[in-house]
Amino acid sequence: MPLDFTAIDFETANSSSASACAVGLTRVRGGEVVATAGWLIQPPPGHDRFFSINTGIHGIRAEDVVDAKTWSAQLVDIAAFVGDDVLVAHNAGFDMTVLRRACEVTADACPPYRYVCSLQVARKTYELDSYRLPSVAAAVGFLDFPHHDATADALACAHIMIDAAARAGVDEITDLAAALGLRVGQIPTPEPVPSFPVAEVPAAGAAAVAVVAVA
Question: Exonuclease domain: from which residue to which, for each copy (predicted)?
Fold first, then answer.
């Protein structure tokens, strides 16, 4: 089977996993990048404060998302881009939690995507001093991208997985996971829970805009 998957990256407004404020996506078909997309998101109500530490990382401010789609409105766009693909993300636990929690607080049905973590793949594939996304991307020749821009981060993640699959001699994303002894995760679909305002605890996030087609 061809190496088909979608790489995804979320950035958050604050310490709440539900506070998605940007998403980046990269579609891979047959081991080649064929499309990228990214856009800003209005975080769900109660999770929409922008902490200065997050804005300092990704540059997104509350006023930047005023005209952006809400989580519920743009979830359709994510689903349309991803289709039935396996998702990949660098530190996938973070991004899958953002997907799941944002859906929980907005009472949206979260697609039960399967996913593979490129951070885990990198640790099994490369000998590096650091496995942060820029370091791993540099190891595969993807250099000088704007880290913490969600679209750029998703593209970097895709290039890591393409290179790792080539090194492992596999052409299917789940075969790559199996070859490295990694689990293919799946997002559970729990019942929606009430939304609670975000606590005053800072956390990380990052940014993205723009929609770009790749020939």
Answer: 4-170
